[in-house]
Design goal:
The protein is mainly β and 115 residues long. It has no helices and 11 strands. The strands form 2 sheets. Strands 2, 4, 5, 6, 9, 10 and 11 form a 7-stranded mixed beta sheet that branches. It has a 4-stranded antiparallel beta sheet with strand order 1-3-8-7, with no helix packed on it. The protein starts with a strand and ends with a strand.
């Protein structure tokens, strides 16, 4: 079992920055992927960014060049640095981990970008 706890969400003006953090309850070194998803009201949950065990990353087209995902295996942490935020980035952001083909989710953290 893996528990994930997100932090760092909040209210920010357009053009601003936020850094989301995800703390895992166990060592993440062997996790297949860790990533961030988001869900806006009335929309489906979508992938924002993920980092794979070898270190490669994937980003949604809408956030490329603005968001950066990173992981710190020693601290069991995953981060999402979000720059140049836009109102359309407003959503609940969820941390995700895949371990032995099982998906684990955090409780989510709200990010609101005002125009």
């Amino acid at each position: 079992q893996v528990q994930l706890v997100e932090s760092g969400g909040g209210l920010v003006q357009a053009g601003g920055s936020l850094r989301l953090s995800c703390a895992a309850s166990r060592n993440i070194f062997s996790f297949t992927t860790m990533g961030w998803y988001r869900q806006a009201p009335g929309k489906q949950r979508e992938l924002v960014a993920r980092i794979i065990i070898g270190g490669s990353t994937n980003y949604a087209d809408s956030v490329k060049g603005r968001f950066t995902i990173s992981r710190d295996n020693a601290k069991n942490m995953v981060y999402l640095q979000m720059n140049s935020l836009k109102p359309e980035d407003t959503a609940v952001y969820y941390c995700n981990a895949v371990h032995w083909a099982v998906d684990y989710w955090g409780q989510g953290t709200q990010v609101t970008v005002s125009s």
